């Protein structure tokens, strides 16, 4: 057929336990059955015997993937710029990835999952399968792998690294320390998928841009401007704010340019999100969907009710979180900051800090759990929307936790020396520590698991007298590595959550205290240059290959960064007032102060409120989506045929 | 064929002078030739002899319009929710208007124009045509009507009222004073097109919403809240700002709901705008377009250069306007306000005001002209974008002119009595006057023209002894009525510019001085209730039927309204300070004041700046548009056939 014969590498592995006794008959053995079925489904299976488990490494010829894509009704971009349903016969009509392959890593992974979990009992009766003497009956149309997961036979299905690409990326990306902020983003995209590539593109751009305020900050800190000294800080402040505004505006441009380069139709990503939304509509209210055309006004009203109810729920949940932060966390943080300020003994200080750190860990975990529960009761539309909702809620916790102590030092005590100390401490110590922890904890986990596995094996084999045991297979090592998960809300987020959180907290720190300590930008720039490489190293060496996710922008984080810019305008003004008025001579009438506070609240209402009410009613969006789906369904087949013909001509 | 046989009313008229001598041979008479050709083109022509001119009233069978639409390659919404190129054979595939007709008024008008101006000399040689003894030669492929316009034979081509619908609208809309804010928006849409209907929908919603702050303002003004009196104004202020924020958020929702009801695919309107943009790209740089696929990076760089150059031009032009306003208009306005304040003699005051009004008229006209010239040097993409650019520039002039005097009274002199007087004076007197002028000037113009026409005729016919002359034909009366044009920048805007300007200035006035005079909302509400009906009356009775325009939102005005809300937050705070501190006892440190001013500037930068840099690079947008166009072109024909078949089945 047209340019096929390609096949993927071994990109997915299934873990099953090793059989204890190999002598038994293999007629009904479920692992053998699974391997047969996988082969029948068109996959290439390589069985690897590990020390304590057996691994089924899977690869797929392109044709098998194509069939899976067809069954999944996958929409793919055609070269006329329209997403159409994939069909194998018309494969020439579809746009290839920048690296020449037909399917992106995300699509391949989805196909693999479809193939693996799509193996069902197709016979008319139950199937009796055995494993190590245990028996279970597979019902008609029950998924084999799902059942085996329930029975504990399939321990995990995980994506595996491709050695060639991984090694290549290791050299040109993770270990390329001299590259400064240069990264092979396109290859990262092909290997890790769009979400991770977007993170690294953002990190690279942010770091590159950071050089400018870092140099400026250094100049402000070191040079003496003579009589102009009074004006230096305000000018620095203005430049920094403009810099930040431009940074994010240009990031948006870069993001859409990246999407265009990766052949993702942006407006269609948008639309895919809506599509997802529609599915959730369908799930929740299938009945109404059916007689939609019958009486439209009823449908419209129901949708509208639904929309407002969802909005109300979200507002209520956010109010709960905000109240919890203000009533529970704020006093706690202030108490700690106050204690730290008044305690004189160093030993006691450390004790208090240790206690505080313990408590805050617990509090954060609890907050994360509460947020996840709350989100379940919101009717968020689609997974990405829930993930965004979680980001906002959890960021609130971290925001309070990170900055309130700093404000305490800056505002109440006007103690700029302590403030600078704390900032340096936080930035350097915590970020270096974090990088270390980020990279060492996975390694320790891995080592521990490895040790355990070997010890267990040794115990088993002590009789056999085998002395030196080593991991022969790479796939087993990978299996023992931890996966890339979020510290909070694992169900909704992957490890990028923590990486973005770190970045956002750093950005908030450098922006909000820019005037108190201009040198801070240098530290941040240095930190980020190492961050790029260590994060890359973590992904390539320390962890399992992450499961690809679909989101194509930095999502909720963009809004958080924008919010931090606005916050930093206000905080820097307050800092400047404190700096210029060290003796506290400036008086302000209470009436004037009240009016100023009211003004700020109103500006917040103006710019925040409008986000609450969506600009397009749900029923309009739904009807648009419905017609778009209809349009695609109608034209897909016909169009594809003519497209691939035209291409061949 | 499928549900045809309909035809439009007489909706367009061509005006030609009456022939002086009717005896001459008619073989080469160009009017006769025109009538023949119009009939051949499938139009229905009715000739009406007026007093001084002759009118060719045109109607069209649906089939003729369909042919024109096909030739225009008009895109229309099909029932699968996709815009496809219109084809007469597949007419069942297209969605009908809410009132049952196939084409909207805008589409009909475009078809008419295409048919009228599409009459060309199709013979191989020149055509010699005569009119009243004058001769001219029509070149090959030259448009007949265009040439006749140049020769002064076709005086005007204008859309005419449809008597039945007009009368109906007059009764249920313009004269329905008891309807409060109720309007038959759908019928307005069918008759006047989308832009005017959107204006009236906005006006209606705004007026309805105004009732709430009007009642509140009345309560604040009249009731005595005892010890809480101090808190009344700030609370009123907060409520009003929230009200305004919600109003515009809900307006956006209503706008998209309206578009859905009128079967306009919003995302596609969006896309149509992009389409327009692409045409302008093509016009300006056809060369580059051709070898676009040949070397993409060059193309990309050129587009990027183009984009930034355009941005720079726009910034420069806006800077010119802002400088002109600050350096020329501001001193002038302040001088007038100051003179008005210090002059004691009433006579002198009136003289100064008269002088000021004269000067400001002249200045505004000049500003408008300069703006239009500047806009020509911007590379705005599409007509609507230029119109928006004009709106921003001219609004700057009017903003200064309307409010600076008020601020002078409020801030410098803390003279709230004068302020209130001036506000009432402006609101009541000027708005009532404006309404009167708006409606009487067209009538006077019409009467004058009528008088002139009759007098001329009388002079001619004095010998013939005809005594009483009356206008027999409605079309001639309409011809004499003024058309719906903007007072500034006629080339770019229609009469809605003035109506929106009036609305925006009123909104600015009531919002920015809300705290100084809460009763103001009542006046505005009353004024707007009359405004709805008088504007409707103006359109239906006083003016020619307006040429329909395509824009489907309130466009630049929405941004202006949003800007006014932000401004009003700041101004009301200043007003509150002045109100609570009548004696001027509140002191503020210069350093603090400086920092506060800096904060406001930075917030402005944050929220204004980001609008300067478009979020999507031009080349991304262009490539998306190109592929969308391609997609449509490929699928149009095939798809249509299957669609109309499915419909028939």
Topology:
The structure is a homodimer of 649-residue chains.
Chain A: E1 12-17, H1 30-40, E2 44-49, E3 53-59, H2 62-71, E4 75-77, E5 83-85, H3 105-117, E6 127-131, E7 134-138, H4 144-150, E8 156-159, H5 163-174, H6 185-192, H7 194-222, H8 229-261, H9 266-284, H10 286-290, H11 296-342, H12 346-377, H13 383-412, H14 416-461, H15 474-480, H16 496-512, H17 520-542, H18 556-580, H19 590-612, H20 618-648
Antiparallel strand pairs in A: 1-3, 1-8, 2-3, 4-5, 6-7
Helix pairs in contact in A: 2-3, 5-17, 6-7, 7-8, 7-17, 8-18, 9-20, 11-12, 11-13, 12-13, 13-14, 13-16, 13-18, 14-17, 16-17, 16-18
Structure keywords:
homodimer, 649 residues, alpha+beta, two-stranded antiparallel sheet, 66% helix, 6% strand
Would you kindly provide a brief summary of this structure?
The structure is a homodimer of 649-residue chains. Chain A is α+β, with helices and mostly antiparallel strands. Chain A has 20 helices and eight strands.
How does this structure look, described?
Chains A, B: It comes from Dioscorea alata. Chains A, B: This is Anoctamin-10 protein. Two copies of one chain form a homodimer. With 649 residues, the first copy, chain A, is α+β, with helices and mostly antiparallel strands. Helix content of chain A is 66%, strand content 6%. Chain A has helices spanning 30-40, 62-71, 105-117, 144-150, 163-174, 185-192, 194-222, 229-261, 266-284, 286-290, 296-342, 346-377, 383-412, 416-461, 474-480, 496-512, 520-542, 556-580, 590-612, 618-648; strands at 12-17, 44-49, 53-59, 75-77, 83-85, 127-131, 134-138, 156-159. In chain A, strand 4 and strand 5 form a beta hairpin. The radius of gyration of chain A is 28 Å and the shape is globular. The interface between A and B is large, with 72 and 72 residues.
